[in-house]
Design brief:
Order of helices and strands: HEEEEEEEEEEH
Low-confidence stretches: 53-76, 161-166
Helix content: 10-25%
Strand order of the largest sheet: 3-10-8-5
Oligomer: single chain
Number of strands: 10
Largest sheet: 4 strands, antiparallel
């Protein structure tokens, strides 16, 4: 009989934890917080919500090669460019380690298979490689940006076209 009471207390405790978690989520949702993280006894809860209108204020880029909207208001970019997109959701890193030089800068010549950056997903580091030989024309992300699946990270101009024009 003691065991059943003990099990009953565990079930009641879990139900109470669940109710408290629901209250926490409702409180965060009703607040003006964009995100909230809570950790206790090895359990981590992270709540975040998407605001209806996103306003981004950003300090100057760490990567001096960042050229987000390079062609805004100018001529359309060359049709001979290839977009390198993120194959997964994660955090983008421009260098192999903190404090080291970035893998690439705008204007660099790259070879097919050359590492352009790293995306960390679930504690795994995934190298992003160039699909073509060419010249880096745009870097559309900053170091430590969260990237989405399919998001364009780099624009590479095909080297073969440039060589043919020379």
């Amino acid at each position: 009989m003691v065991q059943s009471d003990h099990r009953s207390e565990k079930v009641k405790g879990k139900a109470m934890e669940f109710e408290n978690m629901i209250k926490l989520i409702q409180t965060v949702s009703a607040s003006e917080l964009d995100s909230f993280c809570y950790e206790e006894n090895g359990i981590r809860i992270k709540c975040s919500k998407k605001p209806e209108k996103t306003v981004m204020v950003r300090e100057p880029a760490e990567n001096k090669g960042y050229q987000g909207e390079l062609n805004a208001g100018k001529a359309v970019r060359s049709k001979n460019c290839t977009d390198i997109s993120s194959p997964l959701v994660g955090v983008f890193y421009e260098a192999p380690a903190e404090g080291e030089e970035p893998f690439i800068q705008v204007g660099d010549h790259v070879k097919k298979g050359q590492v352009l950056g790293i995306i960390e997903a679930m504690k795994l580091m995934n190298e992003i490689e160039s699909d073509i030989d060419g010249i880096v024309r745009e870097i559309r992300v900053h170091n430590t940006d969260t990237v989405e699946y399919g998001q364009t990270l780099f624009v590479i101009e095909n080297a073969n076209v440039e060589e043919a024009a020379s």
